[in-house]
Design goal:
The chain is of the alpha/beta class. It has two domains: 133 residues, Nucleotidyltransferase, domain 5 (2-Layer Sandwich), CATH 3.30.420; 189 residues, 2-Layer Sandwich (Nucleotidyltransferase, domain 5). Helices cover 45% and strands 17% of the residues. It is built from 13 helices and ten strands. The strands form two sheets. It has a five-stranded mixed β-sheet, with helices on both faces. Helix 4 packs across helix 13 and helix 10 runs parallel beside helix 11. The radius of gyration is 21 Å and the shape is globular. The two termini are 25 Å apart.
Length: 370
């Protein structure tokens, strides 16, 4: 494999249709993402059937645009990489089927990639492009709307060939899902993570009503489902119907309300609640990462996934008092994208580890090394 080798990455695991062209040096020649946010926001979450339908509509123009921006033809590619799982079965099937067609027509290898490993390689790609050195073994924390996983990642034979051991995961909701559910409960709509992150800075956190659950069995595991219940009970106790209706009307008037507009319809008591939620969720993540670092002796922490964009979480884990350096990808590579899928495929290309046309969607695909 030469440094000029290029891989076309395709990502369709959930509600973004994405394609990217990346070379072996880590240069991103194109990255195109088509979001379905406007469609799913009406329902307060992702509707799998609608996601699959939109992927069918978007996959051809998204891949075409990525190749055009990269000034690249199929014959210039060394491989096509596609998310094989985990994710929504129908959504994954769209990307895999299209990638198979490209592989067959262009005569290039097909590489199935684990979506979770893609998030980890987003950080490694950033580090490589900026000539930064991440020390191994490292903890890999993936925090998003669909995942909250904590792995120990160790070097394999190649530079970016990694082996993974699952240390912890959420037993119910992912952290991003908890953000969204609390936001929907209080009238902020879906997705709610970015709104809560901005507004929490204007509140004063208290200990109630959110608390970190005590986990039996594996104390490093996470649980976030109780946060939604706490928010519902808090709302019901205060009869916030008018306040919530005001926020719904704001969302109907404005596709993307400004911070000032949100503050106008969010009283102090609700701002304090959001601050409490964000602090408790951050306490939970930070405590588990500290414990895992002490338990494993890992030398660094990789954080990726959509919730890695959260400003409070970034500040906490980058604090000089945190016991290991924390590495985050740039915001564009934190959320679902195809750059990370292409990046994760290069070690497999170097090993000539290809998937073949028997590749099928694996909605529950695991990352642990054999």
């Amino acid at each position: 494999m030469t440094l000029d080798a290029r891989i076309l990455g395709i990502e369709t695991s959930c509600d973004e249709t994405a394609a990217a062209v990346v070379d072996a040096r880590g240069a991103v020649h194109a990255s195109v993402v088509s979001s379905q946010l406007d469609i799913h926001s009406v329902y307060g979450g992702v509707v799998p059937e609608l996601a699959s339908r939109e992927h069918l509509r978007n996959i051809v123009p998204v891949v075409r645009q990525a190749l055009e921006e990269a000034d690249c033809a199929y014959r210039d590619l060394s491989a096509v990489a596609v998310t094989a799982g985990p994710g929504l079965a129908g959504a994954l099937l769209v990307g895999i089927t299209y990638a198979k067609g490209i592989s067959f027509a262009a005569g290039i290898p097909l590489i199935g990639v684990n979506h979770l490993e893609g998030h980890i390689h987003a950080v490694l790609l950033d580090a490589m492009r900026e000539s930064r050195e991440i020390e191994f073994p490292t903890l890999a924390l993936i925090v998003s709307g669909g995942h909250t996983h904590l792995y120990l990642a160790e070097r394999g034979e190649g530079a970016n060939d990694l082996r993974y051991r699952l240390l912890a995961r959420t037993r119910d909701d992912a952290i991003g899902e908890a953000y969204d559910k609390v936001a929907v409960t209080l009238g902020f709509g879906y997705p709610g993570g970015p709104v809560i992150d901005k507004l929490a800075a204007y509140g004063v956190p208290a200990k109630e009503p959110f608390t970190i659950p005590s986990m039996k069995g594996n104390p490093l595991d996470f649980s976030f489902s109780g946060y939604k219940t706490a928010a519902i009970r808090w709302r019901e106790a205060r009869l916030l119907d008018r306040e919530i209706q005001a926020r719904r009307e704001l969302r109907e008037r404005c596709a993307a309300p400004t911070l000032e507009q949100w503050l106008e319809v969010t009283p102090r008591e609700t701002l304090d609640l959001l601050a409490s939620f964000q602090q408790t969720a951050g306490d939970n993540v930070e405590a588990n990462c500290r414990a895992a670092l002490a338990q494993t002796g890992a030398r660094s922490l990789i954080v990726s996934g959509g919730v890695a964009c959260n400003s409070a979480l970034r500040a906490r884990l980058r604090d000089s008092r945190f016991p290991a350096p924390a590495w985050f990808p740039e915001p564009q590579l934190s959320t679902d994208n195809a750059v990370m899928i292409a990046a994760a495929a290069f070690p497999r290309l170097a090993r000539k580890e290809f998937s073949g046309y028997s590749l099928n969607p694996l909605p529950g695909m695991r990352l642990e090394s054999e």
